[in-house]
């Protein structure tokens, strides 16, 4: 009985992993194929320059907020059609002061102050507070540690000329990449995620994800959806699916690039990924059934949507498959499949399958012309292994809180040190040369 | 007491795994020790398009009878976009 259960579990998990494997390879090949083709010259309505509101939620961001606000003043988008709203979310440092100064100097910059009673309850809550002051037809969001291209707003806003586009997402690039091993590995993950994953989903007409920053929404749609859900830790993924379920889509703009300051140590990495994993799992519980039932999604979108929603369960399932595989190996080989074919399947999967996400990163780095960065790819095995306890803890905590009937949505904020500032100065020098 | 043949197998396996790990991780260790990667990625922000846009608030074309004629901003924008795309087109 035990052996049959283990065998059935093992086969189910293998099929699931192969589904993700095929997805990774398919995405990578799609992007690789497109990168060799002609440059796509999209014809957009150039006269379409809607009023845009930019929301910047900021809680204790004195080290980074100034450079973003300075960047806001350098944007090439017509200033009479721009509104920048800084939401000072109960900061205890000089964030509010810096923002107030900019607000005095530039009339299109405003500050929404939140005190300790109303603020500090997470990003979704701060964004909802900012949305109430927004006057633009389009609402964009930037985290305080981000640093966008000067023509970022044009690049994102023009996509809304298409009435089917409900949200847009730009590309995230790690700024403090050379700092240490953690930032370098996060940069590789971002290359895989934004240069390959998102781009492929957009090209294939699948579920492109709004990443919470460097992107935005059609205001009318956002209001009709009720804004950001404050009970979900991954408010970005939640909104992504609500946009798709409402019959709209998220457009990914690969050449709209924005720098971010990546986490600098393993502890911060754990906290950030734990929040992402738990939030994603909340979304999986909330939306999986609706995605299956939806009449606004095609079959391929439903499949991709489910794979995306449940992606943070995979590290947990890998751990489970190891727990199943080892006793199965010692007990006996499968009754259903001859031993020879089992060995062939496992060998093939181990030789090629396990490398699928790394292949994705490698191709992304290759397209970016970062061949030397590819040398670090074998080290991604450590982040892969590190994600197993992170996601397992997130799932266990989520299940416990569900059993207790208590929602524990404490927002563990990622601290930003401003260590990326020196790279922006170098970047400016490089461009001047 | 472990038989000699079994001990040899264990040592061989251990050495094989160790060699594999060293070979696999060596390039990464080299790159960590002496980084030659040019990161962070330089954002493509000062493209020809934005350069032309920033450099041309209003380009005076000619003076005819002291009357300054200026090129329309929209035309400059369109021209800049076409010019920015041209170098990337496959021949």
What is the CA-CA span between the terminal residues of chain B? 73 Å
Distance between the termini of chain A: 71 Å
Shape call of chain A:
globular
What share of residues are in beta strands of chain A?
5-15%
Number of strands of chain B: 2
Secondary-structure element order of chain A, as H and E?
HEHEHEHEEHEHEHHEHHHHHHH
**Topology pattern of chain B, helix = H, strand = E:** HHEEH
The outline of chain B comes out as: rod-shaped
Strand-pairing-aware structural class of chain B: mainly alpha
Total number of distinct structural domains of chain A: 2
Spatial strand order of the main sheet of chain B:
1-2
Helix percent of chain B reads 55-70%
Counting helices, strands and paired strands, the structural category of chain A is alpha/beta
- Total strands of chain A: the figure is 8
Q: Radius of gyration of chain B, Cα only, in angstroms? A: 32 Å
Which blocks of ≥5 consecutive residues of chain B have pLDDT under 50? 56-64
Report on the architecture of this protein.
The complex is a heterodimer of chains A (433) and B (91). By secondary structure, chain A is an alpha/beta fold. Chain A has 15 helices and 8 strands. Chain A has an 8-stranded mixed β-sheet, sandwiched between helices. Chain A is globular. The mean pLDDT of chain A is 89. Chain B starts with a helix and ends in a 6-residue tail after the last helix. In chain B, 56% of the residues lie in helices and 10% in strands. The radius of gyration of chain B is 32 Å and the shape is rod-shaped. In chain B, strands 1-2 form a two-stranded antiparallel sheet. In chain B, a hairpin with a 2-residue loop joins strand 1 (60-64) and strand 2 (67-70).
């Amino acid at each position: 009985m035990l052996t049959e259960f283990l065998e059935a579990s093992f086969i189910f998990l293998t099929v699931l992993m192969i589904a993700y494997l095929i997805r990774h390879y398919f995405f990578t090949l799609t992007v690789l194929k497109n990168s060799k083709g002609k440059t796509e010259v999209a014809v957009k309505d150039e006269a379409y320059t809607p009023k845009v509101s930019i929301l910047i939620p900021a809680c204790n961001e004195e080290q980074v907020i100034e450079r973003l606000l300075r960047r806001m003043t350098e944007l090439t988008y017509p200033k009479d059609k721009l509104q920048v709203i800084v939401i000072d979310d109960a900061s205890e440092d000089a964030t509010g002061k810096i923002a107030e100064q900019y607000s005095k100097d530039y009339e299109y910059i405003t500050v929404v102050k939140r005190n300790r009673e109303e603020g500090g309850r997470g990003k979704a809550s701060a964004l909802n507070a900012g949305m109430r002051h927004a006057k633009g037809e389009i609402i964009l969001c930037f985290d305080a540690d981000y640093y966008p291209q000067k023509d970022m707003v044009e690049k994102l806003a023009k996509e809304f000329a298409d009435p089917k586009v409900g949200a847009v997402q730009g590309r995230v690039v790690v700024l403090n990449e050379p700092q240490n091993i953690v930032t370098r590995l996060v940069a590789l993950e971002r290359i895989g995620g934004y240069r390959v994953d998102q781009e492929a989903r957009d090209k294939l007409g699948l579920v492109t994800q709004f990443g919470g920053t460097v992107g935005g929404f059609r205001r009318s749609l956002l209001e009709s959806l009720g804004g950001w859900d404050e009970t979900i830790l991954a408010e970005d993924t939640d909104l992504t699916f609500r946009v798709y379920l409402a019959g709209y889509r998220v457009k990914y703009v690969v050449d709209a690039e924005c720098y971010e300051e990546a986490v600098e140590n393993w502890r911060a990495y754990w906290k950030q990924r734990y929040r992402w994993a738990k939030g994603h799992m909340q979304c999986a519980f909330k939306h999986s059934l609706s995605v299956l039932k939806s009449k606004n999604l095609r079959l391929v979108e439903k499949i991709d949507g489910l794979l995306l929603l449940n992606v943070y369960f995979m590290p947990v399932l890998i751990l489970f498959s190891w727990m199943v595989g080892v006793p199965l190996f010692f007990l006996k080989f499968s009754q259903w499949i001859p031993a020879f074919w089992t060995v062939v399947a496992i060998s093939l999967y181990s030789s090629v399958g396990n490398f699928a996400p790394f292949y994705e990163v490698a191709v992304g780095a290759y397209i970016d012309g970062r061949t030397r960065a590819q040398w670090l790819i074998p080290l991604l095995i450590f982040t892969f292994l590190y994600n197993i306890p992170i996601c397992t803890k997130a799932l266990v905590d989520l299940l416990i809180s569900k059993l207790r009937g208590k929602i524990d949505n404490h927002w563990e904020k990622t601290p930003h040190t401003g260590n990326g500032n020196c790279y922006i100065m170098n970047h400016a020098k490089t461009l001047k040369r | 007491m472990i038989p000699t043949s079994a001990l040899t197998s264990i040592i061989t396996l251990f050495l094989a795994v160790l060699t594999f790990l060293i070979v696999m991780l060596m390039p990464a260790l080299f790159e960590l020790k002496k980084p030659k990667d040019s990161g962070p990625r330089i954002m493509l922000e000062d493209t020809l398009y934005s350069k032309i846009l920033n450099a041309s608030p209003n380009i005076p074309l000619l003076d005819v009878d002291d009357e300054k004629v200026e090129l329309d901003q929209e035309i400059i924008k369109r021209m800049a976009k076409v010019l920015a795309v041209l170098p990337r087109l496959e021949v």
